[in-house]
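Each lists sequence, tokenised fold; shown next:
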Amino acid sequence: MSERESPITPTVGRVVLVRGTAIDIPEPWREYPAIITRVWGQNIVNLDVSNERPGGVQLKAVPFFDSDVCVAGAAWRWMPYQVQVAKERDPTTGKARSEATDAAGSIGDATAPGVRERIVQEAAEVGARLNKLTEFLQNTEALDLLSPQAERLLRKQREIMISYTYVLAERLILLDEEG
């Protein structure tokens, strides 16, 4: 495993890449998008992994690993764009070092500056809403007040939100591949 520390502080709701033999797939070298569901430290997180199977896989205490090597168990890393965005930010303010990226680019121009940042922001917002919904669904007292149909719809909403975050992650991966 890498001795390096994660270059970005992990937070719940962020999308990362994960690979390894614990993901229950025939291609452990392939990377899959995952949502951070709990942070244990700078390099250790729990993940909800989308591996093309219904429901995905939940992994606990997954270490950070910044290499392209296939690992036994599982390991996560940041997407290349996330590392690049972090490098472009002022560490004291967290704001972009370049004023030009704020207004440049349009939705239709995937290569324009700012597109990646908008997708990252959207993923963070959806992740935060997803975390609130997940917390609500884990509250049995609150669920007792709902009809079975309402609970079913909330669970369906959660699954759609998870799928949405995976689509955003795939868009970012595509931007990196085409970039």
The longest strand covers residues 32-39. The chain has two domains: 15-78, 84-178. Confidence is low (pLDDT under 50) at residues 98-109. The radius of gyration is 17 Å.
